[in-house]
Design brief:
Number of domains: 1
Structural class: alpha/beta
CATH topology: TIM Barrel
Helix content: 40-55%
CATH architecture: Alpha-Beta Barrel
CATH superfamily: FMN-linked oxidoreductases
Bound molecules: SN-glycerol-1-phosphate
Radius of gyration: 16 Å
Strand content: 15-25%
Number of helices: 10
CATH class: Alpha Beta
Distance between the termini: 35 Å
Number of strands: 8
Strand order of the largest sheet: 1-2-3-4-5-6-7-8
């Protein structure tokens, strides 16, 4: 029997009690100081983990300094959300070891993973295998990841990919509309995917209100990811309000 790592166990134990809210910070968009502040507030508000990553520029020293600032300011787990093998930092607790299953480019399905695997092992970062699916419009990650975005009105395609991911051994499925998407993943799609798979379902991209977070949870999402709404709130006070609002939407 496979023994799950510390962070994956934390996720599963928490999911037995409630739905989870992860906040995504992109080192290309936030300074280490702001990242630390947002992480501290996230912990106070009841967020469950911080994800760190992005499609452009979230690498090297920029990435390391953001991860370190978050670790210094909060006790929340830091999970890497890499755009490629460049998105690895030895200061993180875990990494979503993800495959962009609906990419047209094998680099994003297995190539970057092979290039990063030894580094993950060397640093002792906990890998959590995840099926990553880009839903229309897909935004920057869809373009960079050379995805064939799943049409919003075709939930069955998303469900087929999600189930394939589970059968390939992935222990999480992530439906991604893309950071800053005008609309989140449709509830009908979330519902069908949840109905079909047995592993936890993560949903993100374009969730900026309490109501949108609640709708995604009601439709079947286990973990909600929010990024832009918090990062671009405009001030630290507004970011706190936004975090509280979104967290209410997730936790009820
Ligand atoms: C992007 O799903 C995440 O990868 C979060 O999206 O920035 O739109 O909240 P937002």
């Amino acid at each position: 029997m496979l023994k799950l790592g510390k962070i994956e166990t934390y996720i599963h134990e928490k999911l037995e009690k409630e739905k989870l809210h992860f906040v995504l910070l992109d080192p290309d968009d936030v300074s280490p100081e702001l990242a630390g502040e947002l992480a501290r507030m996230s912990e106070e508000v009841g967020v469950d983990a911080i994800m760190v990553g992005g499609s452009t520029g979230a690498e090297g020293e920029v990435l390391d300094s953001v991860v370190r600032a978050i670790k210094e300011s909060s006790n929340l787990p830091v999970i890497l959300f890499p755009g490629s093998h460049g998105g690895i930092s030895k200061y993180a607790d875990a990494i979503f070891f993800m495959s962009l299953l609906n990419s047209r480019n094998p680099f994003f399905i297995t190539g970057a993973q092979a290039l990063g695997a030894f580094q993950v092992k060397r640093y002792g970062i906990e890998p959590i295998p995840m099926a990553y699916l880009i839903i229309e419009p897909g935004e920057t990650v869809g373009w960079v990841g050379d995805a064939k975005p799943i049409p919003r009105h075709k939930p069955k395609i998303a469900a087929a990919y999600a189930l394939a991911g589970q059968y390939l051994g992935m222990r999480l499925v992530y439906l991604e509309a893309g950071s800053g998407a005008p609309q989140p993943v449709p509830p009908e799609m979330i519902g069908l995917v949840k109905h079909v798979i047995d592993v936890p379902l993560i949903v993100g991209g374009g969730i900026r209100t309490e109501e949108q977070a609640r709708t995604a949870v009601k439709a079947g999402a286990d973990i909600i990811v929010t990024g832009t709404a918090v990062e671009k709130a405009g001030s630290v006070e507004k970011a706190r309000k936004k975090l509280e609002e979104l967290n209410r939407g997730v936790k009820g």
